[in-house]
Prior knowledge:
single chain; alpha/beta; Rossmann fold; 5 helices
Amino acid sequence: MQPLSVVLLQSDFKIAQSLVNSLGGSFHSVHTVRSLDELRTSIAKHRAKVVVLDIETTSLAEVERLSRDFPGLSIVCTHRLADEEMWTAALSAGAADICPSSDTGAILTAALRNVAVSRGFAA
Length: 123
């Protein structure tokens, strides 16, 4: 089984640190980036299976491009005010889930659930 890497693009430094701590216990490595260019480079370099993406720093169109450009990538979106309408739009764009930025438990659960599902399909 290949070690799992996560790439994280988060606008709030405190939340990013909290997510690194939370995700670090369940994934081989967690890489933080500051831009979409760094995100794309890091996904390819580390063969990431999960991206945690703050959609306050990017658009749902970018979620759609990432989903298309990196098949099998699980994209967990975050937003300070995530709601049902945003959830529907994010899933339509190719995200696996959207969670409030501050809910590290939900983000970890979404990341692990979607990696488990994709590994189940590969088995």
